[in-house]
Amino acid sequence: MTESARRTWEYATIPLLIHNTKAILDSWGVDGWELVTVLSGPGGGDQLVAYLKRPTS
Fold first, then answer.
1. pLDDT tens for the chain, residues 1 to 57
2. I want to staple 33 with a disulfide (CB 3.0 to 4.6 A). Which of 23, 40, 45, 52 is the partner?
3. 9 CB contacts (<8 Å, ≥6 apart)?
4. 47: Cα within 13 Å, side-chain hemisphere
5. Cα-flanking dihedrals φ and ψ of residue 27, to 5°?
6. Do 51 and 38 meet the contact criterion of CB atoms below 8 Å apart?
7. Contact 52, 16 (CB under 8 A)
C-alpha cells in the first residue's frame, strides 16, 4: 500500500459570509486546510457552507 493510500484526513465545515469569503478561506488555508467544495447552506438563500480537509498528523 502506498503512502497516499494510507493517508488519513480530518474534515471541517464552515459557514461562509458572502462579503468576506476570500479572507475566511485564506485564514483556514494558512492552517493547512484545503477547500473541497462549497455548497448552499441548509437554509438556502445566500448562505454558503465550505467543506475542507487536511491530512492528520
1. 566 678 899 999 999 988 899 999 999 999 999 999 999 988 877 889 999 999 997
2. 52
3. 53, 54, 55, 56
4. 8
5. -60, -45
6. yes
7. no
pTM for the full predicted model = 0.81
Q: In whole angstroms, what is the distance from residue 57 CA to residue 39 CA?
A: 27
Cβ pair 14, 21 in contact under 8 A: no
Which grid cell is 46? 445566500
The hierarchical CATH code for the domain 3-55 is 3.30.70.2000
Domain ranges of the chain: 3-55
